[in-house]
Amino acid sequence: MSKLYEDLSNDDLIDLLVSGSLVLVPPGSTHKDAFGRGSSSLAGHLPVHQDAVVARQQARRLDLVSNEPQDDARYRPLDSVWYGEEDADLIEQLLRFYPRSPPRLILDATVNGRRFWRGSSRPVIGLDIDRRHSPEVCADNTAIPFRAASLDVVVYDPPHIPNQGRDRSKDFNTRFGLGARSPKENGYTFAHTYPAFMAEAWRVLIDEGVLLCKITDYVHNHRYQWAHVDLIEAGRSAGFTACDCIIKVRKGPIIDPKWKTAHHTRRQHCYWIVFRKSSRCE
Fold first, then answer.
1. CA distance linking residue 144 with residue 136, whole number of Å
2. Model pTM?
3. In whole angstroms, what is the distance from residue 274 CA to residue 210 CA?
4. Labelling 53: which of 1, 86, 129, 261 has CA 20 to 30 A away?
5. Who's near 86: CB < 8 A, 6+ residues apart?
6. What is the pLDDT along the chain (282 residues), one digit of tens a residue?
């Protein structure tokens, strides 16, 4: 399955996405067997779920500074701090600002419940290793099943916090997939997963393509875990240039009720790191 779409052109991939013909093909079959089989996805015959109410709404995009409706005809630089709650609003701003031209094909390499794409009409292929989320492509993002230089933008939102419990208001395990454990051998972090993904993202992106990564630092094992630094180092090692950083402020910090006394500041923000497959950012 991992080789299924590697020999398709960008136009072929876009046609498959629009027509709903990305399908689960039995082992040993080729991409030619995929055409004309209807709208089944690589994740099986489960439909791709999106919020039915917001999927058809016209997204109201907010200016980062004034919170007034943005005029698309007028240039506005992005602010470095985002106070909006929804990632979908921010990611739309990022997709307008950073790609050299409007992206024709976007891969969400950790699509989960498609929260980033509520209300969006962007050409997005969702990839996830868990078929319960009904992604278009069920695969490991360290072995992305697309040919080299076939995607304009890749979006990456890895698990941020290992062994995360419940806080008083949200179940982060259920909402954000933060229940995975990282053993002592990996330093209680997920940083060991970054290099393999970065190498694949570099391979599948076009030259000058953009990689958008959401990442959160955290305190674990009584130490501050510099996840965004680990991510940037992995990206640079793969060949990316780290071009920009947006700080997204949450309404409240993630709190594990196990610990009554804090010895570090509460993490009330995350980062969106912007990488480019290029030696230059501008």
1. 13
2. 0.69
3. 7
4. 129
5. 118
6. 445 566 666 666 666 665 655 544 444 444 334 333 333 333 333 333 333 323 333 333 333 333 444 455 567 788 999 997 789 999 999 999 999 999 999 999 999 989 999 999 999 999 999 898 899 999 999 999 999 999 999 999 987 655 554 555 555 555 554 445 555 555 556 678 899 999 999 999 999 999 999 998 776 666 777 888 999 999 999 999 999 999 999 776 666 666 667 666 667 788 999 999 999 998
β-strands 205-215, 151-156 pairing: parallel
Task: Report the distance separating Cα 38 and Cα 47, nearest Å.
Answer: 12
* Domain 10-276 superfamily per CATH: Vaccinia Virus protein VP39 (3.40.50.150)
Amino acid at 86: E
Residues 6+ apart with CB under 8 A from 103: 95, 122, 123, 152, 153, 210
Tell me the torsion sign for CA atoms 112, 124, 145, 3.
positive
260, exposed or middle or buried, with CB in 10 Å at 0-12, 13-18, 19+?
exposed
- Sketch the domain layout of the chain as residue ranges: 10-276
CA–CA distance, 178 with 215 (Å, rounded to integer): 12
The residues near 80 (Cβ < 8 Å, ≥ 6 apart) are: 245, 246, 247
Per DSSP (E only), the strands in 56-122 are: 81-82, 106-108
93, two tokens: 């701003």
Q: Is 60 helix (H, G, I), strand (E, B) or coil?
A: coil
Is the CB of residue 152 less than 8 Å from the CB of residue 103?
Answer: yes
